[in-house]
Amino acid sequence: MKEIFLAVVAGCGDVPTYDHYKSDPEFRDLIHEWQSLTGKRAVPMTFGNHSAFKKPQVLGICQPMTPSQFNYIIIKREKWNYLSDIHKWVAVMHEQGHCAYGYGHTDGFMRAYLPPEKEVLKFWDEWTEEYLSGEMGLLTYPKECNYEHLYNK
Ligand SMILES: [Zn+2]
Predict the structure, then answer these.
(1) Of 15, 41, 67, 74, which one has the greatest count of Cβ atoms within 10 A?
(2) Which CATH topology does 5-150 take?
C-alpha cells in the first residue's frame, strides 16, 4: 500500500511550495458544514496550482500523500469563482470523498463530472445517505493519474 501511494505521488503529484496543511479561509464554512455532517476531520483545502490543472476542465484534485493524514485538496480558483453554492458543496463532498473517505469515482457525489444542479437537488438525500454509509467504491490506483480529478465541463 505504501509503495502504491508513493508511486502515485511521484508520478502524478506536485510538491506544493505553499502551506497546504491549512485550509483557505474561503472554505471554512463549507468545511465546518462537511465536518458536522460526517463527524470526520476534513482534509485541508486550498486554492493553488497542480499539474493536473493543465487540463482546463479540471476543477479540483485530491492529492494523496503518505501517510494519508497529509492528504490535501487543491481547487482551481478561476473555476471555483463561477460555481453555484450547490456545485461548491458537491465539489467539497467530492474531493473530501476522495481524500477523507478514500472513495473512488462512482456516482452521486463521487461522479467524475459535476452533476447538473437539478439532479443534485433531486437526489440530495439519497446521495448524502450513500456517501455517509462509508460504503461507496474505494479508490483504486490506475496507471493514469486522473482518478482524483473533478471535472467541470
Ligand atoms: Zn474525483
Answers:
(1) 74
(2) Collagenase (Catalytic Domain) (3.40.390)
Q: What are the residue boundaries of the structural domains of the chain, listed by start?
A: 5-150
List all residues 6 or more positions away from 105 whose beta carbon is below 8 Å from its beta carbon. Answer: 111, 112, 137, 147
128 alpha carbon – ligand 1 mean position (Å): 16
Distance 65 CA to ligand 1 centre (A): 16
> At a CB cut-off of 8 Å and minimum separation 6, what does 134 contact?
101
CA-based max dimension of the chain: 41
For residue 78, how far is its CA from the centre of ligand 1 (angstroms)?
Answer: 18
The pTM of this model reads 0.81
Rounded to an integer, what distance in angstroms lies between the CA atom of residue 143 and that of residue 123?
Answer: 32
